[in-house]
Design goal:
The protein has 207 residues and is α/β, with parallel strands linked by helices. It has a single domain, classed as Class I glutamine amidotransferase (GATase) domain (Rossmann fold), CATH 3.40.50. Helix content is 30%, strand content 31%. It has five helices and twelve strands. A seven-stranded mixed sheet has the order 2-1-3-4-12-11-10. It has a three-stranded mixed sheet with strand order 5-6-9. A hairpin with a 2-residue loop joins strand 10 and strand 11. The protein is globular and about 65 Å long. The two termini are 31 Å apart. 43% of the residues are buried. Bound molecules: glutamine. Glutamine binds next to helix 4.
Length: 207
Amino acid sequence: MTNMKVGVLALQGSVREHIKILIKLDIEPIKVKLPEDLTDVDALIIPGGESTAIGLLMKKYKLDKAIKEKHKHGMPIYGSCAGAIVLAKDIIDSKQPKLNLADISIKRNDYGRQIHSFETKLSIKDIGNFNGVFIRAPTIKSFYNGVQILSEHKNSPVMIRQHNLLITTFHPELTNDTRIHEYFLNMAQEYKQVRDMQRDIEENNGL
Ligand code: GLN
């Protein structure tokens, strides 16, 4: 896993917290602030924070196009909370800039004022029990095209996977638990192997 180059979109939000977890897992993270920072990145994390700010800054620095281009060529992406919002194809009642990649419809700040922020024990497929930290979290209202639910809370998905996209509406980066990041790294590693194999085949075609 150590040969993986993992980028963290470093425009706003819980950047440091994701980086801390990656370092704990012996991964040297790359802070992505400009499109050229993506060059060597094998997998990208979009942190929690304020999705409008992240979306606007992404657009300003032309990172939206660069991320979509890398994703088209197979780069896996993990978005936590605001990162989940930015990845969605539909953000209910909002025209904020987004990446339009995950087949979900998401509603911002949807848990109401009383439970603005809360922690709850989640059960996650292939991972087990996990302390879910939710902060002004969105809810996933609908999903389609092979979105796989990995965890639910009160009948709505809080962790999903669609091909090489991973989404949590909560913040594992605010805990000391590295298992969701490990899950993403394993997922990214599988995709990297397939990409490397495809490249080898393409390069050897002329032989
Ligand atoms: N409420 C934030 C938004 O809509 C997300 C909050 C978070 O990332 N903790 O962007």
